[in-house]
Amino acid sequence: MPVMTILSCKILQDEIVHLFENDPCIDEITVIKNNEEKDFLTKLDNAGLKYSQKHLKDMPYAVDREDREKYIVMVYLVELALHEFPKILREEVYRLLENVTPYSDGILLFYGLCGNVLDKVEEDFRHQESTCPVRILRDDKRIVDDCVGATLGGGEEYLKILKKFSDKGTFLFTPMFAHSWREIMRVDPVKPEKTLKMLRKVNEITGYKRVAKIHTRLGYTPDFDKNVEEFARIFDFEIHEVEGNQQIFRTCYAAMKKDMGLIDIQPGT
Questions:
Q1: Beta strands 208-215 and 169-173: pairing type?
Q2: Which residues in the chain belong to E strands, given as ranges?
Q3: What's the pLDDT tens digit per position in 204-220?
Q4: DSSP summary character for residue 138
Q5: Residue 223: which residues within 8 A CB-CB, separation 6 or more?
Q6: Three-class SS state of 28
Q7: Torsion sign (Cα): 180, 182, 183, 189
């Protein structure tokens, strides 16, 4: 069986663990070493999932792989800070796609449009469709806007939430967003107050007044409530509650398996 590579923003690592926990067809999990995988490995350990760690260069090329009976998933996590620079994010994702293609029989991008910079990614890699198809997260109509849109269930649900909170600026936090907001917002870990002061000013100017917790119902990232409450306290925000789901991830993962010629078993909920 072939290798599926999941090239993913670190913010969606919980969703990957959930898929792996619920797919009995996986024979082997390989996590690529690139200094972005520490939290993910802890979650795999806590879930009781076995895995190996390798540098990409140590993986066998797809054409040279001897054991074709195993279904292997290879995970390559990408740093969070790139979201601040959409053009650089696109360049990095495209570079990584080129890098992982020789080792893969199919690549599933755990990304959305991300400022429309990834809207043509499937088209741009169509030339390798017969050997290593590339797919990105979609709802039943189009590519999702971003990781938040995917967690909410797609474009229509995302739009409903945005309309619901349209009277005030609202941060939408998944458990991983709440865990990583300092990294995402580039808060200086040594002298944070300067950055926080600037962020307070930006929030005041742009009208951000609250944070909404997206309940993914995944328990891999601890202290969700605590992290959101800390963020709200620092910026004097209201806290609201929003329901998310895993449907986009389950559907896209199952579709990728089918496109790769694997048995189409839908992972459990």
A1: parallel
A2: 3-9, 28-32, 52-54, 72-78, 106-110, 134-136, 169-173, 208-215, 238-243
A3: 999 999 999 999 999 99
A4: B
A5: 178, 179
A6: strand
A7: negative
pTM of the model: 0.93
Is residue 115 within 8 A of residue 85, CB to CB? The reply is no
- Report the C-alpha gap between 79 and 89 in whole angstroms: 10
Secondary structure element (H or E) that encloses residue 177, with its range: helix 175-184
Q: What does the block give as tokens for 257?
A: 């398996």
Name all domains of the chain by residue range, CATH numbers in brackets. 3-146+246-259 (3.40.35), 154-243 (no CATH)
Q: How many angstroms separate the most distant Cα atoms in the chain? A: 59
Interatomic CA distance for residues 75 and 16, integer angstroms:
9
Report the number of secondary-structure helices (H) and strands (E) in the chain: 10, 9
- What are 57-88's pLDDT values in tens digits? 999 998 888 777 789 999 999 988 777 788 89
